[in-house]
Specification:
The structure is a homodimer of 152-residue chains.
Chain A lengths: L12 H20 L6 H12 L5 H8 L3 H13 L3 E6 L2 E9 L1 H25 L1 H16 L10
Helix pairs in contact in A: 1-5, 2-5, 3-4, 5-6
Chain A binds a DNA duplex (30 and 30 nucleotides) through α1, α4 and β2.
DNA sequence: TTCATTTAGTGGCATATGCCACTATCTTGA
DNA sequence: TCAAGATAGTGGCATATGCCACTAAATGAA
């Protein structure tokens, strides 16, 4: 196969996913910029908000994110006073997370912008398509890629 | 609306996209680990390979990636001797990129692993579904979110 | 030709994410 | 009860990505 006829990156599921994520991330970030939050941060604040003072591990699990990555991502939000953590009294290994009052205010502000971005996306991409896409992405996130171990 | 009944993050197109990207990225990275390349690096090497000594701007455009981000991402690959750059003789602003011989060898090695990951993904997710997903993602990447300027 | 404008990249700074080694806690089995 | 093993997070290091200010080079208009 000559190099000139090689298929592009459109064949790689992972590459396409990342590429679309960059595109959409830029758009959502753009719209959210006035709040001073990135879309990822807004999403994280929201996840904390809807959780019941969730443990870090629980947040990481629902976002399918490495626990240490979550810790890093949380740092600027704690530094800026939007989030605070406290040890679970029943198990001091567990660190729980909650929004501060300012965090709640900031989340409200960010959610307004999020709605704008979300609406604009669905206007452009189509509401049905967006819904199907989210379902497909949720499905992927739930897949199990482990090879079944040889049954004993 | 009570906090307990708030919808989860499954409603945000961007959050779902990032979440799926983390999941799939972890899987592809896992499979590619023996090559010492991350999936992103393999994708970048491939993109350089199929291009005709592409300019940095051209690569960034096809990957929908910030030009400076591409520059950063390229650094470890240059440091490890897989990629080299040279100024375009006709326009010295332009910097072109190509694989070194070792880069080509490494890409071959990585592509073998990529095929395994890709195959496994399509086994688990379904070949048809994967194809539809890639098409949907490509569609999103091509969208234009700009609000139409008020017609003069 | 000359200077303003546009184009292509770079470098610095900041967030996003992951892996690994290590610490602090719980849990459990002897 | 106590030591081995499992759990939850942290910190360090590395890559992934973006924005902004700045430089170099080409283009275009006066």
């Amino acid at each position: 196969m000559s190099k000139d006829t090689l298929p592009g990156l459109t064949l790689c599921n992972n590459a396409m996913l990342r590429r679309a994520a960059r595109k959409l991330g830029q758009f959502y970030d753009d719209v959210m910029a006035p709040s001073g939050l990135k879309a990822t941060q807004q999403g994280l604040l929201y996840q904390i908000h809807i959780g019941n003072e969730p443990a870090m591990g629980a947040i990481a699990a629902s976002l399918i994110m490495d626990l240490s990555a979550l810790g890093h991502t949380l740092k600027p939000l704690i530094r800026d006073g939007y989030v605070e953590t406290f040890a679970d009294p029943d198990d001091r290994r567990i660190k729980r997370v909650r929004l501060t009052p300012q965090g709640l205010v900031k989340l409200d502000e960010a959610m307004k912008l999020w709605h704008i971005a979300q609406q604009r996306f669905e206007d452009v991409a189509g509401k049905e398509q967006a819904e199907r896409l989210r379902a497909a992405l949720d499905h992927i996130a739930a897949l199990d890629f482990d090879l079944p171990p040889a049954a004993p």
